[in-house]
Every structure is written in C-alpha cells, then in structure tokens.
C-alpha cells in the first residue's frame, strides 16, 4: 500500500477500534451499574448510543474501503477488510433487528427475565471478532 493510503486506513481502523472498545466493552456494561438506571432506561440509552456507533462505523468502513481500494493492498489486508465488513454487516442486518425487537418488548414492560434472548450474546461475540479483525487489520495496513 502507498504511504498515504496506509496512514489513512491505519488511523481510521484504530479510531474505529477505539470506539468499539470504549462503547461496547466499557460504556455498555457500566451504564447498568449507575445509580437509578433501570433496565428500561439503560436499554433506551443503549439503543441510541449503538445506533450512533453503527452509523459512525458505517462511515469509517467506507473510508477504510476507499483507502484500501486506492492502494495496492496485500492479500491479508483485503481479507481482513472483508472480514471486518462482513462482521459489521452481520451485526447491522441480522443481529440489530433482533435486538431492537427484544428492546421493544422490554421497553413495553415485559420482564426481561421472563424470556431470554441470545441476540445480545451473538452481538457481543461479533464485537469480539470485529475487535480482533480491526486490531489485526490496523497492524497489517501499517506493516506494509
């Protein structure tokens, strides 16, 4: 990859990684421990935060793809970019709609303990894969 494309792809990849780590693995679990935050309030906040995160992630993904596409990337960079995009697409197209339906039922007053959903676990598993792919992609892009 040329220097400019590598710098842009690396910077954006690590920015994206930092956002995912900060929101998914720090903010999300901590908000439920704050005094006075009920499950309904926490879910309402979470829905807004993750909607914003996913919009920003989509924009960052477009920038990474553009930077990679304008260079001569290695097979590893192309593969890692594809994995990262596939994970994000899976979260947005498959898991988020399920989570939104679940949030709607809980926000409408259903006891969350009454009916457990695995959608949250799938989202977290995909977040872990995304973190690993972003970390590896960032390193691969900057290694040239």
TrEMBL record:
<feature type="transmembrane region" description="Helical">
    <location>
        <begin position="121"/>
        <end position="143"/>
    </location>
</feature>
<keyword id="KW-0812">Transmembrane</keyword>
<keyword id="KW-1133">Transmembrane helix</keyword>
<keyword id="KW-0472">Membrane</keyword>
<feature type="transmembrane region" description="Helical">
    <location>
        <begin position="6"/>
        <end position="28"/>
    </location>
</feature>
<feature type="transmembrane region" description="Helical">
    <location>
        <begin position="75"/>
        <end position="95"/>
    </location>
</feature>
<feature type="transmembrane region" description="Helical">
    <location>
        <begin position="49"/>
        <end position="69"/>
    </location>
</feature>
<protein>
    <recommendedName>
        <fullName>Transmembrane protein</fullName>
    </recommendedName>
</protein>
């Amino acid at each position: 990859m040329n220097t400019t494309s590598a710098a842009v792809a690396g910077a954006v990849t690590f920015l994206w990684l930092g956002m995912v780590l900060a929101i998914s693995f720090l903010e999300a679990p901590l908000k439920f421990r704050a005094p006075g935050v009920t499950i309904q309030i926490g879910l309402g906040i979470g829905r807004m935060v993750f909607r914003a995160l996913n919009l920003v992630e989509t924009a960052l993904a477009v920038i990474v793809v553009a930077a990679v596409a304008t260079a001569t990337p290695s097979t590893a960079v192309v593969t890692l970019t594809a994995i990262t995009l596939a994970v994000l697409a899976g979260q947005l197209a498959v898991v988020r709609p399920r989570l939104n339906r679940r949030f709607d039922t809980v926000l409408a007053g259903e006891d969350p303990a009454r009916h457990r959903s695995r959608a949250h676990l799938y989202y977290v598993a995909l977040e872990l894969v995304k973190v690993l792919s972003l970390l590896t992609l960032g390193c691969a892009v900057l290694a040239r």
